[in-house]
Write a structure and sequence with these properties.
Number of helices: 12
Oligomer: single chain
Number of domains: 2
Structural class: mainly alpha
Helix content: 40-55%
Strand content: under 5%
Order of helices and strands: HHHHHHHHHHHH
Radius of gyration: 24 Å
């Protein structure tokens, strides 16, 4: 071990540099470039839970131990995630409507209501430091509240870093702009973890006269965020950044 006369300060740093071996490349800060999984890495035929000979894995998507990696690789799409909701839906008419949405959903469908919705949601998540938040109920509620300008203008000042003060959101005239706004608002309140009670029932969601097709699709997407986090957004839209 080399003898050092200066233990700290500028001279100490200079002395340590002078005692390095010739042509020595300093070590990095311990950061490595993260490995990105591909679809080939997440082939269910190679899963330890798959029956022999190599066939598809029998584990449900919700209980899949490789779910995070499969979402990252892009081998799962929104239709796959929506299908995983069906076993937990007990109301037959609602299960039928979600099933029809699964059949209609394609890989190229956009997860958001519009590009404006996408930009607004991304901005709220980024500015609020919620990219790695574990409160998926809050993320799902924000997804719904940013889906149209009328709702967001009412809710924006009631959104804090870790909660949404629904009691401060005025819903006066909410149905006059669009009848679906009230259903989206109630669904956001239902999905938010700190708001107990039943705010929207399965019968309402199953009724097409109360909840239109576009609003229903957004609510189901919010349910995916509630269950799978922001990884569901990536699975539902290739343009999420």
């Amino acid at each position: 071990m080399p003898v050092r006369f200066f233990l700290e300060g500028y001279l100490g740093s200079l002395e340590r540099t002078m005692q390095l071996p010739p042509n020595f490349n300093p070590r990095g800060g311990g950061r490595t470039k993260g490995y990105r999984y591909s679809a080939a890495d997440c082939d269910c035929r190679y899963c330890v839970n798959a029956p022999k000979p190599r066939k598809s894995c029998s584990v449900s998507l919700t209980n899949c131990p490789c779910l995070a990696e499969r979402l990252e690789s892009g081998c799962l799409h929104a239709a796959d995630l929506i299908a995983s909701l069906l076993p937990d839906i007990r109301f037959p008419k609602l299960r039928q409507r979600v099933g029809e949405l699964t059949a209609e959903r394609t890989v190229n469908d956009i997860f958001f209501a519009s590009t404006h919705h996408q930009g607004l949601f991304n901005g709220v998540i980024r500015d609020g430091g919620l990219r790695h938040s574990s409160d998926t109920g809050l993320l799902a509620a924000l997804f719904l509240l940013t889906s149209n300008g009328f709702l967001w203008n009412r809710a924006r000042f009631a959104v804090w870093r870790s909660r949404i003060a629904f009691e401060d959101i005025s819903i006066r005239g909410i149905t006059e702009a669009k009848i679906d706004n009230y259903a989206i608002y109630k669904a956001a309140k239902e999905l938010c973890a700190d708001n107990g009670g039943c705010h929207i029932c399965p019968q309402e969601l199953a009724d097409e006269t109360l909840v239109g097709e576009k609003a229903f699709s957004l609510i189901v997407n919010a349910m995916l965020i509630k269950r799978y986090g922001l990884a569901a957004v990536k699975a539902g839209s290739d343009i999420f950044s």
